[in-house]
Specification:
By secondary structure, the chain is mainly α. Among the domains are: 57 residues, no CATH class; 64 residues, no CATH class. It is 53% helix and 3% strand. It contains 9 helices and 2 strands; from the N terminus they run ααααααβαβαα. Strands 1-2 form a two-stranded parallel ribbon. The radius of gyration is 28 Å and the shape is elongated.
């Protein structure tokens, strides 16, 4: 009969920590269980499908720069190409990019083309489209299957494994929820824990 030997250099707290399961380990086991589950139907897989925004179209810089150009002409063309690439990354089409880059001269036309009110409405829609795209890009990026923890759960997790790097890469499998932001990370505002508790109670009663 084999008996396991305990390293005498480990304290009782360290031994207890080794027996505990982190939230990341629990999430990893759950993901592995779903991955190995062969009873899942096609309909269930479709219900979990996630759609992503299409990738930005890349247009190489070269055709416009072909031929004999002065240094100033090449630099101006290069700056214009950078602006076009930036606008394309914000989700604009070629026609929207052309209209946006020429917005300064839209009110100085010769009377031909679209009405000024329609053009301004379209420019406003383009601006809203860019702002929305920037807002989405500014959102925190996390794993799609990341589990949201309450403030209390996150405090317990941090208290148990503070100062350790045990499976630190698994921390991407969980994240703090909304109430942790209200606890001090949202707009630099710090609320009293008692106030947070009252707010939670009110919302749970609704």
């Amino acid at each position: 009969m084999k008996t396991g030997r305990v390293n005498s250099s480990l304290s009782s707290d360290e031994l207890l920590l080794e027996d505990l399961e982190t939230e990341g380990e629990r999430q990893l086991k759950s993901l592995l269980h779903h991955q190995l589950d062969t009873t899942v139907s096609i309909e269930q897989c479709k219900s979990k499908r996630r759609c992503f925004a299409p990738a930005a179209f890349y247009k190489p810089f070269g055709e416009e720069a072909a031929g004999a150009l002065t240094l100033s002409q090449f630099q101006a063309l290069q700056e214009s190409n950078k602006e076009t690439a930036s606008l394309r990354e914000l989700g604009l089409s070629d026609s929207e990019i052309l209209l946006w880059k020429n917005r300064a001269s839209t009110g100085k036309g010769s009377g031909l083309g679209a009405a000024p009110e329609a053009t301004q409405d379209r420019l406003h829609a383009i601006q809203e489209k860019m702002e929305e795209h920037q807002r989405i890009l500014a959102l925190p990026q996390r794993f799609a299957g990341s589990k949201q923890l309450s403030r209390r759960e996150m405090e317990i997790e941090n208290a148990l494994f503070q100062g350790t790097d045990r499976h630190s890469f698994l921390r991407a499998l969980y994240h703090e929820g909304l109430w942790s932001a209200l606890a001090g990370e949202h707009v630099g505002m710090k609320l009293h824990p008692r106030l947070i508790f009252v707010c939670k109670t009110v919302f749970n009663r609704r």
